[in-house]
């Protein structure tokens, strides 16, 4: 072990070498799963569906050797893990070559300056519809105060909508230019109706880390007879506010505290789709260890289809300015509202047909992957893979066209991004490599006057935000992480059919302090095939 550590220390010695290492070996296989009661072929990690949780502490180095035992190329991406100075590890096709069938690749992640609740998922094709996802938690270092007492236990709760069709059939529908049908159900930790089961002891308080790892629907989460206190959102400790139900949009993660303060029986845990007709609902069970009766009564109902309830809830979730984040200093000591933005990017989605096939776009460009990961093309200076500037800073209003869209951004700039949603569905956007301040959201069209209502004091910093139907959401981002970063819809069919692009955060500096060199073990593919990474 010591020798292995030494070897790794030498091999990966960059930046966080003094911080602890944690090693994982994952075997990714197909296997039978029965989430809705019928057999399906799932994607398992070490035989598990969902996959194992990653437990880590701020600044830990996480070394994960992933063996791809599927019959298709495979990649894992780390939702919310910033991979600072190291977009090569982001695990999306724009940054990282797929792991060929029968081969392995070792991810080298560092949980640099992060705390909180996140998840990982398979990023290629439509693998996410088959599993391969799991929770990631980053605990605070021992001496950094956490603004609530240690919970009695800490559970990962992955909720998401689910199809009975397998990922190859779903992908074939999309490749054929069609939209996917409505999902067949909702899962809680990979289980359908009454399958998920959590045991609690009366009087104790538990932390639940809830992530929506689904494909297309916002979900509402609630527990019969119990309140939930939101304490953390994607790495931000929040003002502790209590809710009887919580909207978790695609790709989002929340930590809540739940106290088992009711009489000893079993209670329903419910996850149901939002803003849909029909509403898909699934239940799990919160079981009191001293319970003397099974779940009873109807499961609690969710909020109405009106968006105001959800919008008001979103606005009520704020940063606890005096609490510590990953560092001992209070989260409020970074006064994001006092920094002038130097650029405004307005992004608007659209849906339509290109060459008779369904596509989705951002500012009229429907992203198509290149034959080579963009980050590798950048590193090896391979021309003709992508063009910076192939997507504009504002909606063009034009028809949808296909391109490998990459937007330039200056390293260390502080910018405003406005997501404009002129469609009548709810959207959810994720930016890899960053967390951003969600300064405002409202119905109607965004105008510069909308800035008057921004929250410039205690907005939460997170990596995934919803945009309500016919509404806008504005974020502020400090572009302090050099690399090629995916900005994407978390509505997975839309992402697959083009509603995404890459933000190339660029500096002319070649210092390792700004960006790490390509990892020595990086796979090469496409037009980068045969190129050498670095001499060992
Ligand atoms: C992965 O699991 C498969 C199926 O159980 C097995 O055949 C294979 O040897 C495993 N690979 C590794 C690297 O453990
Ligand atoms: C998906 O299901 C189809 C039948 O509907 C089957 O032919 C195919 O092999 C399955 N693929 C996987 C990866 O399970
Ligand atoms: C694949 O696994 C082997 C054996 O565990 C390891 O030595 C090697 O570095 C891995 N390959 C990559 C590309 O990570
Ligand atoms: C905010 O954090 C402080 C410092 O840890 C804590 O004492 C306080 O209870 C928190 N306030 C709220 C409203 O969450
Ligand atoms: C921000 O811009 C305002 C108005 O242009 C200016 O007065 C102020 O000094 C700027 N603040 C900073 C921190 O640069």
From TrEMBL:
Instruction: Give the Plastocyanin-like domain ranges.
Output: 28-141, 153-290, 371-508
Fetch the InterPro entries from UniProt.
Cu-oxidase-like_N, Cu-oxidase_2nd, Cu-oxidase_C, Cu-oxidase_fam, Cupredoxin, CuRO_1_AAO-like, CuRO_2_AO-like, CuRO_3_AO-like
Q: Which Pfam families match?
A: Cu-oxidase, Cu-oxidase_2, Cu-oxidase_3
Q: Which domain of life is it from?
A: Eukaryota
Q: Which UniProt keywords apply?
A: Glycoprotein, Signal
Q: Which residues form a coiled coil?
A: none
Q: Where is the signal peptide?
A: 1-17
Q: Is this entry keyworded Glycoprotein?
A: yes
Q: Name one GO molecular function term.
A: copper ion binding
Tell me its family.
Answer: Belongs to the multicopper oxidase family.
- Protein name (Swiss-Prot/TrEMBL): L-ascorbate oxidase homolog
């Amino acid at each position: 072990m010591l020798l292995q550590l030494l070897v790794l220390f030498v091999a990966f010695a960059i930046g966080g070498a003094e911080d602890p290492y944690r090693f994982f070996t994952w075997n990714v296989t197909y296997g039978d799963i029965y989430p809705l009661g019928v057999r399906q072929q799932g994607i398992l990690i070490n035989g598990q569906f969902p996959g194992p949780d990653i437990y880590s502490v701020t600044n830990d180095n996480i070394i994960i050797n992933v063996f791809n035992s599927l019959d298709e190329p495979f990649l894992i991406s780390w939702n919310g893990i910033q991979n600072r100075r190291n977009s090569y590890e982001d695990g999306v096709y724009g940054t990282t070559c797929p792991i060929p069938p029968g081969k392995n690749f070792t991810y080298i992640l560092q949980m640099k300056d992060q705390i909180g609740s996140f998840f990982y998922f398979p990023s290629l094709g439509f693998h996410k519809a088959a599993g391969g996802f799991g929770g990631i938690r980053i605990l605070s270092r021992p001496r950094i105060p956490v603004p609530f007492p240690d919970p009695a236990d800490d559970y990962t709760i992955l909720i998401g909508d689910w199809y009975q069709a397998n990922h190859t059939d779903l992908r074939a529908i999309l490749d054929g230019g069609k939209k996917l049908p409505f999902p067949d159900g909702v899962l809680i930790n990979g289980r359908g109706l009454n399958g998920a089961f959590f045991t609690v002891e009366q009087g104790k308080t538990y932390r639940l880390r809830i992530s929506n790892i689904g494909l297309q629907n916002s979900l509402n989460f609630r527990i019969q007879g119990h309140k939930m206190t939101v304490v953390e959102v994607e790495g931000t400790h929040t003002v502790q506010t209590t809710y009887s139900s919580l909207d978790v949009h695609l790709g989002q993660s929340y930590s809540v505290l739940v106290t088992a303060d009711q009489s000893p029986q079993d209670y329903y845990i419910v996850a149901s789709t939002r803003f849909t007709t029909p509403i898909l609902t699934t239940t799990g069970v919160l079981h009191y260890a001293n319970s003397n009766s099974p779940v009873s009564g109807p499961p609690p109902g969710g909020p109405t289809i009106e968006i105001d309830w959800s919008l008001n809830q979103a606005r009520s979730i704020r940063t606890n300015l005096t609490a510590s984040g990953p560092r001992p200093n209070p989260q409020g000591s970074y006064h994001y509202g006092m920094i002038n933005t130097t650029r405004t990017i307005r992004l608007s989605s659209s849906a339509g047909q290109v060459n008779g096939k369904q596509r989705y776009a951002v500012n009229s460009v429907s992203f198509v992957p290149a034959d080579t990961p963009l980050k590798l093309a950048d590193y090896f200076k391979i021309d003709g893979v992508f063009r910076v500037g192939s997507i504009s800073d504002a909606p063009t209003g034009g028809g949808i066209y296909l391109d490998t869209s990459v937007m330039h951004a200056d390293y260390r700039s502080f910018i405003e991004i406005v997501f404009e949603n002129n469609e009548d569905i709810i959207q959810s956007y994720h930016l890899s490599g960053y967390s951003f301040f969600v300064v405002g959201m409202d119905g109607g069209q965004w105008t510069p006057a909308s800035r008057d209502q921004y929250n410039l004091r205690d907005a939460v910093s997170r990596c995934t935000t919803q945009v309500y139907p016919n509404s806008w959401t504005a974020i502020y981002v400090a572009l302090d992480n050099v690399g090629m970063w995916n900005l994407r819809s978390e509505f997975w069919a839309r992402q697959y059919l083009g509603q995404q692009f890459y933000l190339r955060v660029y500096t002319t500096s070649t210092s390792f302090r700004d960006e790490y060199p390509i990892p020595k073990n990086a796979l090469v593919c496409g037009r980068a095939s045969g190129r050498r990474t670095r001499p060992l």
